[in-house]
Description:
Elements: E1 11-17, H1 22-37, E2 40-46, H2 49-52, H3 62-70, H4 73-86, H5 91-104, H6 111-120, H7 137-151, E3 159-163, E4 169-173, H8 183-197
Parallel strand pairs: 1-2
Antiparallel strand pairs: 1-3, 3-4
Helix pairs in contact: 1-8, 4-5, 5-6
Amino acid sequence: MSENTPANGTIPADFWFDPLCPWAWMTSRWILEVEKVRDIEVRWHVMSLAVLNEDKLDELPEEYRDMLENKAWGPVRVVIAAQQLHGDDVVGPLYTALGTRFHNNGEGPTREAVAGALKDVGLPADLLEYADKDTYDTELRASHQEGIDKVGQEVGTPVIAVPGADGEQVAFFGPVVTPAPKGEDAAKLWDGTLLVASIPGFYEIKRTRTQGPIFD
């Protein structure tokens, strides 16, 4: 039996995020809704938009390049430091605190917002110091690469991995959705995700986005 095969009826869902990404935030709120209506276990992992784009900075718009170089490293470094020093269980709550401040409250990825998020979940304030340090960059890159190895190179965040037909993980970018579905709608989207993951050779469904993230 694969380590990814559901045990005791609980289905594992691995979720890679960068707290800066509003679309990853939408998807993360959806999967937390799924936890309320389906027997799943979400396992949170960091990925990094800065790492994802570091080899193509010259090709990016100036504003986005500035964001990656000056704002993207700090939050993921703080999350990975919290994970390394305080365990996997802090990652999800810290992400929720960061995303709520960054996106719902409109604070953006500021040092003040990160400090506030640490306080919100009762983590030590001195974790903020890791925003400017490469202490755990090896672990950050390893976490990022784990997700990318599962899904492939031509994607962004979020990445989710769920059991396929044989129990081995199948990973996708997305689902990209706004606003985050709730209740039975969340369940139906989850059921559909498992369905397409069960089809060998399935890769993508896509359409043009006509609406921005709705934070509710």
